[in-house]
Amino acid sequence: MTVIRRLSVHTSCDDTLVDSASDTLCDDLPLRTQQIALHFVIFNFDKKEAMDGNGADNKAAVCQMGLVDYTTDLLKQAMTRFAKNAAGKSRYTILDLGASQGRNSLQLVHHVIKHLDASLPSNASPDILVLHEDQPANDFATLLDTLISPASYIYARPNIYTGVISKSFYEQVMPTAAVDIAVSYISAHWLSKTPAPLPGDVVMYNDSETKASVAASTLATWQQAAHDDLVAFLRLRAAELADHGSLCMTYISDNGSPLIQEYGRILREAVQDMVAAGILSSASQDRVAVPMVFRTTDEFLAAVAQVPELELHEYEHVPMDVKFPNATESTKFLSSVLWPSLDASMTEQERTDPQVRQVFNSCMAAKMSQPVAGASVPFFEQFTIMYFYGHLTRRPRANTDAP
Fold first, then answer.
1. Cα 303 to Cα 212: distance, rounded to the nearest angstrom
2. Are 107 and 64 a contacting pair, CB within 8 Å?
3. What is the tens place of the pLDDT at every residue in 65-90?
């Protein structure tokens, strides 16, 4: 049965790194952390466009960090299950998939380590290696700065080691059975590539106009790509996880609420306004297709059913109300996520013209100031992000395929 909970988060999306774990971090603890740089041969791939660089994603991430607090009981349940079933070790490896610039990861990993330590025997003091993965185009300079910032989990206890992996999570990023705990928060709604062009004004799959104006064959292509990508993601994690290893994941989802379709509509209309203003060409508009899909519960379960190596435990929708003070702040948040997809569709002249983004932000802010779905208040005041949480564990391997 799918459970729906609701969380409300107030935010101003400012530049300050929030130390949400300050009650447990110790400022005078000696730094016993090593930065481990892991480099891989990178083949040509087409994952989601990188988030904005220069720390832009970290500035917006406070709008999402409440999800970690809200799911902490679910993370505790997952770590309790892991400690009960997995073999005791002197070192555990945690893999954070889709780390971006790291701000969400700090709080997420802190909670995981806290619950893991609480679930282990009192005399256990294992080393912990945390590896943060993201695509090669990611802003790794900001990520590394974030990992050693005062808010980092590395100060929470001795013997924590950290590093980064520059590789797509649609590839195997760790050796077989090398990962004990994998976490992926707010990433798996991004597809490995754009499945097919979206015709006309439609720029997102989850848009109220999509089914009315997009050919059935194009819809089927997107649906199949979303299914195949999630199956591939789960199979790769099944390979990387040790026996009884734990995977906790969240992504933006579709629970059937009409508001879910409004984000696609608002982006579509903002792009239309940019074309009408003469700041963006119709050809660039035609190329825009944001490679993300908000999956339903049934779509998640259909993918899990194809990966028998993993056992599904808790799963539920988590609606999060984000209270922005004004339309401008809500636009900053959305722009940090959506702008790279628009930027990739533009001509070089449009891409280098600072007015283009200024007009985009103005158009988006105007849309966010309008009521939607029959409401009497502007959209930024009823801004809801629907997340989906799932916990899966790695079934024990047969002796014949154990590493």
1. 26
2. no
3. 589 998 999 999 999 999 999 989 99
Cα–Cα distances (Å) from 361 to 12, 336, 358, in that order, read 17, 11, 5
Contact assessment for residue 252 and residue 333, using Cβ atoms and an 8 Å cutoff: no
Per-residue model confidence as pLDDT tens digits over 119-152: 999 899 999 999 999 999 999 999 999 999 999 9
Task: Give pTM, 2 decimals.
Answer: 0.85
CA gap 15, 9 in Å, rounded:
17
User: What are the structural domains of the chain?
Assistant: 8-401 (3.40.50.150)
Those residues with Cβ within 8 angstroms of residue 35's Cβ, 6 or more apart along the chain or in another chain = 144, 147, 148, 162, 163
User: Count of CB atoms within 10 A of residue 265's CB?
Assistant: 19
Distance CA 190, CA 225 (A): 11
Q: What is the 3-state secondary structure (H, E, C) of the chain?
A: CCEECCEEEECCCCCCCCCCCCCCCCCCCCCCCCEEEECCCCCCCCCCCCCCCCCHHHHHHHHHHHHHHHCHHHHHHHHHHHHHHCCCCCEEEEEEECCCCCHHHHHHHHHHHHHHHHHCCCCCCCEEEEEEEECCCCCHHHHHHHHCCCCCHHHCCCCEEEEEEECCCCCCCCCCCCEEEEEEECCCCECCCCCCCCCCCCCCCCCCCHHHHCCHHHHHHHHHHHHHHHHHHHHHHHHHEEEEEEEEEEEEECCCCCHHHHHHHHHHHHHHHHHHCCCCCHHHHHHCCCCECCECHHHHHHHHCCCCCEEEEEEEEEEEEEECCCHHHHHHHHHHHHHHHHHCCCCHHHHCCHHHHHHHHHHHHHHHCCECCCCCCEHHHHCEEEEEEEEEEECCCCHHHCC
Bridge partners (DSSP) listed for residue 4: 317
Torsion of CA 165, 166, 169, 170, to 10 degrees: -140
